[in-house]
Design a protein that fits this description.
By secondary structure, this protein is an alpha+beta fold. The chain has helices spanning about 1-30, 225-240; strands at about 55-60, 65, 70-75, 80-85, 95-105, 115-120, 125-130, 130-135, 145-150, 150-155, 160-165, 170, 180-185.
Amino acid sequence: MHPTRSLHALFIALVSLGVLAAVLLSGCQPSLTITPTRTPEMVATPLPVHCDPITVSTSGGQTVLTLSDGSLIYLAENTEIEITPAGYCPGNEEHNLLLKQGHVAVNSLLPEGKWIVITSPNGYIARVGKIGMVTFDHISNLFTLACTNGTCTLGTKADTLATLDCGESAYLDTYGNFNGPFNVDPATLVQFGDWLQPQCAPAKTSTPKPVTATPTPTGTPTRDIGATATAYCSSFNRQFPLTPCPH
């Protein structure tokens, strides 16, 4: 009787142990939760645009800036500007200069209808279509424009600018009063070279020329254009040996 009872107890113990092991194993299984992965959205972030103007100042002599389109900006000694060239900022199709003090002479190669725009610290505006010189005296606050080739404009507001033709100059005083136009004084331009002198067609005159006994030469004299250009470039290169002769 005792062996049978012992086997029965052993069987019960083994079954109980198996059940206990199964429970323990099921409790130790790590729970795995699968979270669906979301594809990140691609957001186009515009690149930062830097349109801060470039500051240029001269204290040791004249300086020449050659811009990307070939336009030339000449700065006299003791001149300070801030320049924003065409194309430097999105949508900017003109060269813009803030003239803080001194003299700048410009030779524009921008397309027809585009300007080199020069402003004074108090917001007065001078625009040069081809060639001209602009001066700002920071002591007297006179803002002067000399137009020596093409058309220029001058004024206090962009929608009320006065037009200056080739060979004319004018200035705005500290109160914005327009004075001019006057004939350009060639003596004020000599510091930059002969290229800045007025390049205008001679003015028509109603005064008849005196009749002389000089015989009329036969044939039409031919102007030596090559010699004129050579002399012009030689004069320019003597003053600006590192700068190509402008045309």
